[in-house]
C-alpha cells in the first residue's frame, strides 16, 4: 500500500516522466498490482506511457463486492476494493458520487449510457472473483424497463473473453427470465434470489434449471417466491438449500432424502411449503418416526457405509433435512 502511494507521489515530482518507459514491464506490472483501482485510474492521467500501458495490461481491479440497483429514477452502482465507491446515475442527466458528494452534469450522453460505458470499463479490469455480486430491480415497470436493462447487461457480460465469477450471486427480480439473463453469464457458487414484488408468486425456473450454473450451484436460496420441487432433480452438487414450495409432494421428500443418501455434498435443506396434501402418506413411505410430538415428527436414516446419517424433521409448514455425524455408528 505504501509502495503504491510513494510511487504516485514520485510521479508528481518528476519533470521527465518519460523515464518510466525505461522500467521493465514486469516491474511496472508488479507496481500496478499493488495499487488500488482508484490509484490505477489516477496513474492513467499522469502520462501517455502509463495510460497506454494500463490500457494494454489492464491490472486487476480486485473488486470484492459489486451492487447494481435499477430504480425508476436512477441506476446505483456500488463496488468495493480497499475503498468503497458509490455512484448514482440519475435520469435527469447527472451523476452523484455518494462518497465524495460531488455532482457531475452530463451534456452529451444520457445517464444510462454513461453507466453502461463505466461498467464496461470497470469490468474490463476485473480478473479476480467477486465475493458478492448483486443485481436488484427496484423499478415499477418490471416488464419493459427491467428487460431492456438486463438485456444490455447480458450482452456486456457475454462479451468478455473470460466469464465473471463470484462466490455469491444475489438477485432481486420478478421472474425467471430476469434470473436467466444474469445467471447464464457468470460463474457462481451460491445463488440467492429475492422476489422484487415482495410477495409469494409462482416462479418458473424451467429454463434456469437447465443451466450448468444452476446444476453446479453449492447453495440456493429463494425468498418470497413459490417454486416447483422438480427443479432440484439435477442439483447433484447442492450443499444447502432454503426454498419455499408452492406444493410439497411425497415424491419431492423421497427425492431429497435420496439426494442426501447418495450425494456426499448435501448438508442442509430447508423447504417451506404452502400445502402438503400427501402428508398422511409420509409415515407409510418413511416408516414410523423415531420421535414425534403433536407439532413435530423426526426421522433418522443411516447412510450406508458411512458414519453419517440424515435427520428429517417435519413441522406444520416446513421440512428440514440435515446431515449429521453419529459417533460409534
Automatic annotation (TrEMBL):
Residues 148-277 form the DUF38 domain. It comes from Caenorhabditis remanei. This is F-box domain-containing protein. SUPFAM superfamilies: F-box domain (SSF81383). InterPro entries: DUF38/FTH_CAE_spp, F-box-like_dom_sf, F-box_dom. Residues 20-59 form the F-box domain.
